[in-house]
Design a protein that fits this description.
The chain is an alpha/beta fold. 18% of the residues lie in helices and 23% in strands. It has three domains: 38 residues, no CATH class; 111 residues, Severin, CATH 3.40.20; 109 residues, 3-Layer(aba) Sandwich (Severin), CATH 3.40.20.10. Strand 9 and strand 10 form a beta hairpin. One of its GO terms (cellular component) is actin cytoskeleton.
Length: 297
């Protein structure tokens, strides 16, 4: 019998994280990191892999907007489905940024309060994870002047007093939401029609992900023409934008439309219900579409 000796090699992996509003372009590594031998994983806000959040142990990652003012109200969306992957990103303090399928933490210094706001369509599993995570305490401890704020619970439709002068609105979902949306990029880049499913970096087979995709994923241009099909379970969206007319684009439009109709028909058979197929252009999107995403500029 031959025993082969195996040497365990330990290597450091460096995550180079950039915020969503950081300057574009490739940023240089710190001088103490060897550019040639270091294993560097460059990631950007909103698209981090699951393993990144496991590095923080019990300390939740919170990202504040630039020019942070602790005396102003703040709105944080809770991202992730598993306890160790929960994190919070600040979004502009506007009522339209709430989501029926989401959980938010709202800091209101004027009343010395922090609210954990839950939408009416979050899953029972996420609700339990959020309760155990004590996210209100997490946010309170991040800012010295907030440490004595009272933590309260708030449900969808109870928030009007927090947004008194805000006439904007979010989409109040009525349907049952026990599903994760799916997104497909429809294109002919390789010379034949293809429908490529877009992956969610935090996807877990046992969890429902309410907001797996970002607005930035919907990248369509004359250099990369295509369509996106968004399966929101009770509705299907076919997404495009205005591109330069061409024979290739006309062929792609026909193929994408046929794929969307066939996909919708199969979905209807599977669920035994009628499902609308909706067409939308990125320069003119309705609120029920934008609210399928965690945030929309």
């Amino acid at each position: 019998m031959v025993h082969e000796q195996m040497e365990l090699i330990l290597e450091n992996v460096f995550f180079y994280w950039k915020g969503s509003k950081a300057p574009k372009g490739l940023s240089p590594l710190p001088p103490d990191i060897d550019n040639e031998t270091a294993i560097v994983n460059r990631i950007v806000q909103w698209s981090e892999p699951a393993v990144f959040f496991h590095l923080f142990e019990k300390n939740r990652m919170i990202v504040f907007e630039e020019n942070f003012n602790p005396s102003s109200p703040h709105l944080f969306i809770v991202r992730g489905e598993l306890s160790r992957e929960l994190h919070l990103y600040e979004v502009p303090f506007m009522k339209k940024n709430l989501r029926s399928r989401g959980v938010f933490v709202i800091a209101v210094p004027q009343t010395r309060s922090i609210y954990v706001w839950t939408g009416s369509k979050i899953t029972n599993e996420l609700n339990e994870v959020v309760k155990e995570a004590s996210l209100g305490v997490t946010v309170r401890n991040y800012v010295d002047s907030w440490k004595n704020f009272e933590i309260l619970e708030m449900k969808e439709n109870e928030e009007d007093d927090l947004f008194v002068e805000d006439s904007s609105e979010y989409w109040h979902v009525k349907e049952v939401c026990n599903f994760s949306p799916k997104l497909f990029f429809l294109n002919t880049i390789i010379g034949e029609f293809a429908a490529i499913e877009v992956e969610y970096p935090l996807r877990s087979k046992d969890c429902v992900a309410a907001f797996p995709f970002l607005q930035s994923y919907l990248s369509i241009s004359d250099d990369q023409p295509g369509y996106f099909l968004l399966d929101n379970n009770h509705e299907i969206w076919l997404i495009t934008c205005d591109l330069k007319p061409s024979e290739t684009l006309r062929e792609l439009e026909a193929l994408a439309s046929q794929f969307a109709r066939s996909y919708t028909e199969e979905k209807e058979k599977m669920l035994s219900v009628s499902i609308p197929l909706k067409f939308v252009k990125l320069d003119s999107v309705p609120i029920e579409f934008t609210n399928i995403f965690p945030h929309w500029n």
